């Protein structure tokens, strides 16, 4: 199986890369017909070193990934501190490092809405979910939701909710990666996206959760170090006077003093509340984050994971705020980083990368570029693994094969799913090239908050929840969130080219999330079936198991 997958992956790599190089855009770039950035040998060297190191980790992990548990959860052998760093690595994504700093660069104070929204979701994880997830689940959050509910409909719904979230999140990472490599190497955007997609497939297919975890840990340490050094140099430029930094930014920004007040990014109450709901509760519904609670040995280590992750993530978001305001002064006014029309070279998402050049020269630029690329590779690997697990474990093994699939068969399907997800990520990454990566992640959070979170939290805490209610609520949340995203300005106008959007707001969570809860509650209350009564009675046993831990395969309800 491994040999056939190796040949398939190699063929995919060769075909996609050849396709990218044969395109007129890429051919012009390589022949010098298009203007491109001067190659930075330091950045390229660090980039190559990181790719080689992560491929080495993947090779090492592949020899230790033998079973289903190894592939999905690293055999439960990750410590709480290691897992906390890996979770922080998952969260400190391209959207955080490139996207939030870009939002602060363009909108000032309002860019913090993403930082704060991302962060405040973690207390929910720490106090309400971490311990129960670890005790009730095995590989995915669908294991928890299906503990006392009917397996087939719950796992199907959870898998589709996971895949919708994963694909949107993947788009954001691919866009950030493409723009980064475009600036770094001078290659075309499409070629850069293809390269990232192929590397992602390699990491997931051969290394599984163990490789993904260690890539995340190494990348988190490097990113925290790099962002700290950059913020320190920015503050040093302003004599460690934050007020001086803010006043300088106000004096040079096109929006003036408006960047120090809310309203420049989210201009109406509906969008503000909707975005806030998505960011706060979407955290507790992200499949690639929830999977990490199954990589530790017990609930105590799961809680420690959240505690460690929250500290690192909070510290990192403070740094992105400093980086964004520093970029306003040191990058936005420097002709070396601006195109002829006054826009930022490589797009606004590259503000942090250009700031590294402005503060630390070629060497630091190379380091930050390599770290930013590491950030993206690590996150897309975790996302692809979550999507592949939803397909292989939830849909194939437990829905189509009804628990009768062998471990080898299930892993084979998951690895093939990672190939398909990689191809989709490449196609969608190219299609959404012009979108801000933080905004795209906001949409992914909206779907997670509207589909995954209501099912998980109600299945854990509400004894009256039945399969009928969970499916009704989850479907309402998923269909409403996806439908409103399609009808919103970002897809209906920017992607499909229509003049005006059907749904005027960019964020759907204020509508889709309440609908999910209402649907789940009403559907459960009107469910008078025998199976519904049995599911309510099983809640007491679930409560006991959630305190002491249990194998999900011993769940009481197996319809």
Brief synopsis:
This protein has 559 residues and is mainly alpha-helical. Helices cover 75% and strands 0% of the residues.
Question: What would you say this structure looks like, in words?
Answer:
The protein has a single domain, classed as Sodium/glucose cotransporter, CATH 1.20.1730. Helices cover 75% and strands 0% of the residues. The N terminus and C terminus are likely disordered. The chain has 559 residues and is an all-alpha fold. It starts with a helix and ends in an 11-residue tail after the last helix. 59% of the residues are buried. Helix 16 packs antiparallel against helix 17 and helix 18 packs parallel to helix 21.
Core attributes:
single chain; 559 residues; mainly alpha; Sodium/glucose cotransporter; 75% helix; disordered C terminus
What is the C-alpha radius of gyration, as a whole number of Å? 23 Å
**Shape assignment:** globular
Give the low-pLDDT segments.
1-37, 550-559
How can the largest sheet be summarized? none
Mean pLDDT: 82
* CATH fold group: Sodium/glucose cotransporter
Find the structural class using helix and strand composition: mainly alpha
Topology:
Blueprint: H1 2-22, H2 24-31, H3 41-62, H4 68-73, H5 80-91, H6 94-107, H7 112-120, H8 122-136, H9 141-145, H10 151-185, H11 189-237, H12 242-252, H13 269-282, H14 287-290, H15 299-330, H16 351-400, H17 407-431, H18 437-461, H19 467-487, H20 489-493, H21 509-525, H22 530-537, H23 539-548
Helix pairs in contact: 1-11, 3-11, 3-16, 5-11, 5-15, 6-10, 6-15, 6-16, 6-18, 7-13, 7-15, 8-15, 8-23, 10-11, 10-16, 10-17, 10-18, 10-19, 11-15, 11-16, 11-17, 12-15, 13-18, 13-21, 15-16, 16-17, 18-19, 18-21, 19-21
């Amino acid at each position: 199986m491994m040999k056939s997958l190796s040949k398939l992956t190699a063929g995919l790599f060769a075909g996609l890369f050849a396709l990218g190089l044969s395109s007129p855009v890429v051919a012009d770039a390589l022949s010098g017909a298009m203007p491109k950035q001067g190659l930075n040998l330091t950045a390229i060297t660090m980039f190559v070193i990181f790719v080689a190191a992560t491929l080495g980790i993947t090779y090492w992990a592949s020899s230790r990934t033998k079973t289903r548990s190894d592939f999905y959860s690293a055999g439960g052998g990750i410590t709480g501190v290691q897992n906390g760093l890996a979770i922080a690595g998952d969260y400190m994504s391209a959207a955080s490092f490139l996207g939030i700093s870009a939002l602060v660069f363009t909108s000032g104070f309002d860019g913090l809405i993403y930082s704060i929204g991302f962060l405040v979701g973690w207390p929910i994880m720490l106090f309400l979910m971490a311990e129960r997830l670890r005790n009730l689940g095995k590989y995915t959050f669908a294991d928890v939701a299906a503990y006392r509910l009917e397996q087939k409909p719950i796992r199907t719904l959870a898998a589709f909710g996971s895949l919708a979230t994963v694909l949107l999140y993947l788009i954001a990472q691919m866009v950030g990666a493409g723009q980064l490599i475009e600036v770094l190497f001078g290659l075309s955007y499409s070629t850069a996206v293809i390269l990232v997609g192929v590397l992602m497939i390699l990491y997931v297919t051969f290394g599984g959760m163990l490789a993904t975890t260690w890539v995340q840990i190494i990348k988190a340490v490097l990113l925290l170090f790099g962002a700290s050094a950059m913020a320190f140099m920015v503050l040093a430029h302003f004599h460690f006077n934050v007020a001086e930094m803010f006043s300088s930014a106000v004096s040079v920004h096109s929006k003036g003093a408006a960047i120090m007040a809310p309203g420049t990014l989210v201009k109406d109450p509906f969008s503000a509340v909707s975005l806030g709901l998505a960011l706060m509760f979407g955290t507790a519904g992200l499949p690639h984050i929830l999977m990490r609670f199954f990589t530790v040995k017990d609930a105590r280590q799961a809680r420690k994971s959240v505690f460690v992750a929250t500290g690192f993530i909070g510290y990192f978001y403070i740094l992105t705020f400093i980086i964004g305001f520093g970029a306003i002064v040191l990058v936005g006014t420097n002709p070396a980083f601006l195109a002829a029309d006054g826009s930022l070279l490589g797009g606004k998402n590259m503000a942090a990368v250009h700031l590294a050049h402005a503060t630390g020269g070629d060497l630091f630029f190379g380091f930050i570029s390599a770290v930013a690329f590491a950030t993206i590779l690590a996150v897309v690997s975790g996302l692809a693994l979550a999507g592949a697990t939803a397909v292989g474990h939830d849909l194939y093994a437990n829905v189509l094969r009804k628990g009768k699939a062998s471990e080898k068969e299930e892993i084979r399907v998951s690895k093939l799913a990672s190939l398909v997800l990689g191809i989709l990520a490449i196609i969608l990454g190219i299609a959404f090239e012009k979108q801000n990566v933080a905004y795209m992640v906001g949409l992914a959070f909206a779907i997670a908050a509207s589909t995954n979170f209501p099912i998980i939290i109600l299945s854990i805490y509400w004894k009256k929840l039945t399969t009928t209610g969970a499916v009704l609520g989850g479907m309402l949340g998923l269909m409403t969130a996806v439908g409103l995203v399609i009808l919103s300005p970002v897809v209906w106008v920017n992607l499909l080219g229509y003049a005006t959007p059907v749904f005027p707001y960019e964020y759907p969570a204020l509508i889709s999330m309440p609908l999910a809860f209402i649907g789940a509650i009403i559907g459960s209350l009107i469910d008078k079936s025998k199976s519904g009564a049995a599911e309510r009675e099983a809640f007491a046993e679930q409560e006991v198991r959630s305190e002491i831990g249990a194998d999900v395969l011993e769940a009481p309800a197996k319809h």
